[in-house]
Amino acid sequence: MKGILHTILILLCFFIPLLALCQGNDQCIGPNIGTGALFTKETVGCVPFTVIVEKTDGNSKDHQYIFNYTGGLPANTVTEKIFTYTKPGAYKLMQISFRKDNGQELRICAVITVLDTAKIKINPKICNNTVSLSLSDIRKNGTIPYDYCYINWGDGSILEKVNLPANPVPHTYANKTDKKITVKGGYIVEDCGGSNSINLKFPTINEPKIQELNKTGANKFSISFNNETGDDYTILANGQVLLSQKGKLGQTKFSFDNPNSNTCYSIQLQNSCFTNTISKEVCDINFQLTPTAEGNELTWLKPATESIKDFILTKNNSTPISVSSSSYTDKEIVCKEENCYQIRFTSNGSSFISERLCVKNNVVPCETGDNPIHVPTAFSPNGDGINDKLFLFGDLERFISLKIYNRRGHVVKSINFPFEAWSGDDQPAGLYEYLLKFKNINNKEVILQGTIMLIK
Predict the structure, then answer these.
(1) Which has the minimum average pLDDT: 8-12, 115-119, 417-421?
(2) 3-state class of 233 per DSSP?
(3) E strand or H helix at 433
């Protein structure tokens, strides 16, 4: 068998000149150079492969070795007789020695073949009790592919030997309990190779289900679902094929573009075993944000007659806003400050996440004159009678509200009465932000942002 491999390697020299044995300026033989005798334990094996020179010719001495000779004048020889190859490929081992009787130099070379142990890629598809395996020998160019593989189906049946490459290999199980399938590659010349395993779970549903539809940007979406059968699938937009994809078993996430707004999406599996191969729809809501002089206007559409659950509108990633219709105007806007909004809800048991829309509202009137209401920059509730509480001063008839936030953005105090004070007793010392809402001289609502230092 090893002679067969040697023939294969000679052919590879013509077709893959990058292999180590196909070097130019080969000086394994030459003028006035004799031929020695090289005795290695083995010349073929899987990576990592250790070559051992078992013995030397009794008629020669001073044996030296180059374990990866690539042509030219021999250099960098070693006297060690053991070497381990850590990468697959074909290598040339040169031995140099000298006759004991007349000192003539002797050279001899041998081809060392190091086989890859790459894992075979396993792609299963499930239909009732039958599993069909597609096997792919994925490896780097220039290495020899597997000749066959062994499949352990994980149900106590005998190992199945399959010559490669192969069409999908089917196997029918007696039950639908969880299984572990292992595939090990092998070579005719050396029965060694890498193993790969998958844990197999039979589907517990009778139709596909979208886990999440995420609008990641303008016209950009991603769909997540668990492909429990490993089948190829198509994404449908309003019932029409938008695109098709090769399937793989397990959690799947795919990104795509679609310029059409207010579209409903579903997944169709290429599987005749399901009673229903099309998932329930999840719909885009055409979420839009428009800055106005009154605030940031948010609008969206109800996509379908299906009920929407757990509807959440968030501001700046944390603040939830209660809404009861398909529009909302956020009036708590600080002039020229950016705000971001996002919608999440559940429909047909699937999650939808809208695009995160951000805007810096330059339309809201900015207060350019003096602030008619004064908020102290610090106070210290220490009982000394001086600045123990936070009070507002100024033209308090213009006051609307004051909200104070901690470092996490949570409201710790809301003041809706201008003569109300804040003691700060229930909060730790530190810097707090506030939003002060009041009416300017034109009777327009204005929001100003500032900070307060709580000293304890």
Answers:
(1) 8-12
(2) strand
(3) strand 430-439
Check whether the bond before 31 is cis (ω within 30° of 0). Answer: no
Could you give the CA distance from residue 79 to residue 72 in angstroms, rounded to a whole number?
20
One domain, residues 128 and 184:
yes
pLDDT of residue 70 exceeding 50? yes
- What is d(CA 202, CA 200) in angstroms, rounded to the nearest whole number? 7
- For residue 391, tell me if it sits in a domain: yes
Note the residue count of the chain: 456
Q: How many domains does one find in the chain?
A: 5
Would 366 be classed as within a structural domain? no
C-alpha distances (whole Å) from 259 to each of 217, 224, 237, 263, 286 are 11, 20, 11, 9, 11
> Which residue among 247, 263, 283 closes a domain?
283
Residues 292 and 279 in one domain: no
CB 262 within 8 A of CB 300: no
Provide CB contacts within 8 A for 385, sequence distance 6+.
none
Q: Are the C-beta atoms of residues 435 and 400 closer than 8 Å to each other? A: no
Beta bridge partners of 216: none
> Residue 367: CB partners within 8 Å, gap ≥ 6?
335, 440, 446, 448
Nearest alpha-carbon partner for 181 in 148, 162, 159, 214: 159
Residue 365 resides in a domain = no
pLDDT of 371 reads 72
Q: 132: which 2 tokens?
A: 């069909």
Model pTM?
Answer: 0.60
Q: Are 52 and 41 in contact (CB under 8 A)?
A: yes
Residue 7 shares a structural domain with residue 111: yes
Are 47 and 118 in contact by the 8 Å Cβ rule? The answer is: no
Residue 292 and residue 274 share a domain: no
Q: Is residue 315 part of a domain?
A: yes
C-beta separation of 281 from 261 below 8 A: no
Give the CATH number of the domain where residue 193 resides: 2.60.40.10
The one-letter code for the residue type at 450 is G
Specify whether the CB–CB gap between 189 and 159 falls below 8 A: no
CATH number at residue 402: 2.60.40
Residue 17 pLDDT more than 60? no
Closest CA to 434 of 363, 357, 379: 379
- Please answer whether residues 118 and 137 qualify as being in contact, where contact means their C-beta atoms are separated by less than 8 angstroms: yes
CA distances in angstroms from 115 to 87, 163, 185, 203, listed in the order given: 8, 17, 11, 38
Residue identified by tokens 């019932």 is 239
User: In terms of residue numbers, what domain contains 271?
Assistant: 210-283
